[in-house]
Write a structure and sequence with these properties.
Keywords: Cell inner membrane, Cell membrane, Membrane, Transmembrane, Transmembrane helix
Main location: membrane
Strand order of the largest sheet: 1-2
Largest sheet: 2 strands, antiparallel
Family: Belongs to the UPF0761 family.
Structural class: mainly alpha
Strand content: under 5%
Number of helices: 20
Shape: elongated
Helix content: over 70%
Protein name: UPF0761 membrane protein PAEH1_02455
Pfam families: Virul_fac_BrkB
Length: 447
């Protein structure tokens, strides 16, 4: 009687679960690493300082527009209510909005020069946000100055009115529904209660989609908008709980506690927004499985060869070279890792970055006909100078004969892709043998 063999199904399930867990961890590590590379904590600090300086001028400009057109009074009230209830914790929202309105009202009595200063300060804040988002996407090509100024002014003048109108219309619709319909379905009640969340998510989605000077897929921007809005809601609840349970700022600062609390809230809010923007920038790389290729052994060396070959092909093009976005698209690689790789290649003298029409482009800085691969091998593959054992010296000798061969230049490698195959065949027939692949003379053979 034979014993039945155990089923392999549990083993397969265990293997698939392990692979899924490993893939999930690698993906998460890739996302966290890419977000940290963007140095968002320091950027959030800078944006917080700029926001504090510009928030009163910005609010003054917006309120002056609403004041100039009494027709929009309902829009202004709806916008203020939305900002205080949605974007700030309840503990500080009323005090902050009251003080900001007082400051903005006093600013309305300024002269023409003072009003111009308010407008310039507001535009500077939006310019800083614009530059920050472009840095997250590694965008080097700026929009024309007049184009930027017109867009900023359109946002300043039309943005608050459109936002207030949409919020007001949504509020009126909700109130009308609640007043005229005695019993609402669960789905209708749910939809009406989440109007602020939906509007905020759409606003952040538009911010991520249109601010960077780069084509952003709306599905990616929407994912980032929903994530940012959800994270801000969690942050607002957590921040309110902290202030209630640990009233440290109130005990220390007393009546002035609103100031440090508001500063901390602005900083944390910018931190969440920048994480959301970074997530949107990373999503295309996740679809290309960049997290799976960037960690492979030898990936920097192989990517460097691909970059150099691409720039070699573009050496006679007009305009010369390629920008980071073009390189990333053609090679289907993560812009962040390519940016670090290009800096390494520049340090070794292979490439150089140039500015052409406010666009940073990368071109070859070496003569491909005489430039060997040896420095690239030492920088990204193996430092041959570190060989200090017989085995290490043997490996280095093999590398010297192949990829680090002085006769193997960029020109010969890229123009004659079969040369490495010919070289390996030559080594196989003249240096190595099948029975003795390293060509080592043994003691028995020497007798």
């Amino acid at each position: 009687m034979t014993t039945p063999e155990p089923s392999a199904q549990p083993t397969r399930k265990h293997t698939s679960h392990t692979a899924w867990l490993t893939q999930s961890v690698d993906t998460l590590l890739f996302i966290v690493t890419r977000i940290l590379q963007r140095n968002i904590t320091q950027v959030a600090s800078s944006l917080t300082f700029t926001t504090i300086l510009a928030i009163v001028p910005l609010l003054a400009v917006v309120l002056s527009l609403f004041t100039a057109f009494p027709l929009f009074d309902d829009f202004r009230a709806a916008l203020q209510e939305f900002l205080s209830s949605t974007l700030m914790p309840a503990a500080v929202s009323s005090t902050v909005m009251e003080n900001l309105n007082q400051f903005a009202a006093k600013a309305s009595s300024l002269t023409a020069v003072g009003s111009l200063f308010l407008i310039v300060t507001s535009i500077m804040l939006m310019s800083t946000i614009d530059q920050t988002f472009n840095d997250i996407w590694y965008v080097t090509e700026k929009r024309p100055l007049m184009h930027r100024v017109l867009v900023y002014w359109a946002i300043l003048s039309l943005g608050p009115i459109l936002a207030g109108a949409s919020i007001w219309a949504s509020t009126v619709l909700a109130q009308d529904s609640l007043g005229h319909i005695s019993t609402l379905s669960f789905l209708s009640s749910f939809a009406l209660s989440y109007i602020p969340f939906i509007l905020t998510a759409l606003a952040f989605s538009a911010l991520f989609a249109y601010v960077p000077n780069r084509r952003i897929l709306w599905r990616d921007a929407f994912v980032g908008g929903v994530f940012t809005t959800f994270a801000l809601e969690i942050l607002k609840s957590g921040f309110a709980f902290y202030l209630k349970q640990f009233p440290t700022y109130t005990l220390i600062y007393g009546a002035f506690a609103t100031v440090p609390i508001f500063l901390m809230w602005v900083y944390l809010s910018w931190l969440v927004v920048l994480v959301g923007a970074s997530l949107v920038a990373i999503l295309p790389n996740l679809r290309r499985r960049a997290w799976a290729t960037s960690n492979h052994a030898g990936a920097p060396f192989l990517n460097a060869l691909s970059v150099l070959e691409l720039l070699w092909q573009q050496r006679n093009a007009v305009p010369s070279g390629l920008n980071l976005h073009q390189i990333s698209l053609q090679l289907r690689r993560d812009p962040a890792s390519l940016h670090e790789l290009l800096k390494s290649l520049k340090k070794d003298g292979y490439v150089v970055n140039t500015i052409e029409n406010e666009d940073e482009r990368w071109v070859l800085s070496c003569d491909p006909a005489i430039t060997p691969l040896a420095p690239l091998v030492d920088a990204l593959l193996i430092d041959r100078a570190q060989a200090d054992t017989p085995v290490a010296h043997s490996i280095v000798s093999l590398i010297d004969l192949t990829v680090a061969n002085p006769d193997l230049t960029l020109e010969s490698l890229f123009s004659e892709p079969k040369q490495l195959k010919k070289l390996s065949q030559y080594l196989e027939h003249h240096v190595f043998t099948r029975s003795n692949p390293l060509g080592v003379t043994t003691h028995a053979e020497s007798q």
